[in-house]
Inverse folding.
């Protein structure tokens, strides 16, 4: 019995020792995985930051001996000729390599063209291109979607006419603030399904341009309102920013005449009186559109 108890204690001790060793190794591994830092080189002559880097150990000092002709080395040499040394400072520490890459890229993006870094850094595809703050960019300022669009053709086809849409590659809405605001919600790259009341779905298109007042639109260098439109009153209120018709130019992926419109009564398809509505939650309607128009909407969205 004593021998059995001794063996059990011995095994227990081995397990405890093994557990302790594994825990210590894990802690050591954890430390080694989080010993990266991000550093900056500063010009002491004007205190401008001119280089960002990431590394561990003595990496931050390695550039001081760089004798190449890259912009960073040239600037360090200029500083040394003045009898000075670059100011080298760690600005983030205790990082994983992935965290260090991301912080480095964030700083590189912020410094922009003034950095002497040659490589664009990891995560470059996650950051907005420089010199684009003056415009909206897909994926940064908005994400393209799949939408329902109501053609809004009136009974006498005076303000909007589907035949004009097909012929001149555009969609429009307006004659009131809420309709104007609805079409202004479209962004270049959005996919939409055009619905014509009393007929059905008549086209799938992609937005080319943000909506603008109809008087400001040109097609093939010709003023839009000079085109031979069947809708005779699209020019109504064209000088009034609140009441004007607003127009998006589009690329039609598929379009059909009104008498070839796609429709079914059961199960019921999604429709609304709104000018624009998301189809993200309308899987049945999207599947119907893909089947009837012979396309895969998800594959063509930007």
């Amino acid at each position: 019995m004593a021998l059995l108890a001794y063996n059990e204690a011995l095994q227990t001790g081995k397990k405890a020792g093994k557990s302790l060793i594994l825990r210590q190794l894990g802690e050591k591994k954890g430390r080694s995985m989080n010993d990266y830092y991000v550093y900056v080189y500063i010009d002491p002559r004007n205190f401008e930051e001119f280089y960002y880097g990431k590394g561990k150990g003595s990496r931050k000092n390695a550039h001081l001996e760089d004798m190449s002709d890259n912009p960073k080395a040239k600037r360090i040499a200029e500083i040394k000729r003045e009898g000075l040394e670059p100011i080298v400072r760690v600005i983030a520490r205790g990082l994983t390599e992935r965290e260090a890459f991301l912080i480095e890229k964030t700083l590189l993006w912020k410094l922009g063209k003034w950095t002497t870094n040659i490589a664009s850094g990891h995560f470059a595809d996650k950051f907005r291109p420089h010199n684009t703050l003056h415009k909206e960019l897909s994926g940064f300022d908005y994400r393209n979607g799949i939408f329902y669009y109501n053609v809004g053709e009136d009974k006498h086809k005076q303000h909007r006419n589907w035949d004009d849409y097909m012929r001149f590659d555009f969609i429009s809405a307006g004659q009131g603030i809420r309709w104007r605001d609805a079409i202004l919600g479209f962004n270049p790259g959005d996919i939409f399904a055009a619905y014509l009341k009393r007929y059905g779905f008549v086209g799938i298109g992609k937005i080319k341009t943000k909506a603008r007042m109809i008087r400001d639109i040109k097609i093939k260098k010709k003023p839009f309102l000079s085109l031979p439109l069947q809708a005779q009153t699209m020019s109504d209120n064209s000088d009034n920013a609140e009441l004007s018709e607003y127009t998006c130019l589009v690329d039609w992926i598929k379009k059909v005449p009104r008498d070839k419109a796609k429709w079914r009564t059961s199960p019921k398809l999604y429709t609304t009186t709104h000018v624009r509505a998301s189809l993200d939650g309308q899987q049945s309607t999207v599947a119907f559109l893909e089947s009837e128009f012979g396309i895969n909407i998800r594959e063509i969205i930007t």
Q: What stands out?
A: The radius of gyration is 32 Å. The helical segments are 2-33, 71-81, 97-111, 162-168, 177-184, 283-293, 297-300. Residues 31 and 94 are 8 Å apart (CA to CA).
